[in-house]
Amino acid sequence: MRFSTLVIITKEDIIEALHDVKDPEIPTISVVDLGIIRKVEIDEDNQVKVTMTPTFSGCPALKIMENMVREKN
Predict the structure, then answer these.
(1) CA-to-CA distance for 13 and 27, rounded, in angstroms?
(2) 40/22 Cα distance (integer angstroms)
(3) Beta-strand (E) ranges in 1-73?
(4) Does the first or last residue of the chain, that is N or C, have fewer Cβ atoms within 10 Å of its Cβ?
(5) Which long-range contacts (CB under 8 A, 24 or more apart) does 45-51 make?
(6) What single string gives the DSSP state of each residue in 47-63?
(7) What does the pLDDT average to over 48-68?
């Protein structure tokens, strides 16, 4: 007999994990602390969508931070 474990991911779990994603220009500050995480959504299949808004238009580190957030999933 095989059992599977159901893991429920919460918005709080995602935000906690995002505290490990640091600004590449200021590596002591997380993307959460910077305030660029605007929304975290989790659908019924546990797919996560994170909406980020850069600190200023044309932020050169935005792509790097987007990739770092994707890698946390």
Answers:
(1) 21
(2) 17
(3) 37-42, 48-52
(4) N
(5) 46/7, 46/9, 48/9, 48/14, 48/73, 50/14, 50/18
(6) -EEEEE--SSTT-TTHH
(7) 80
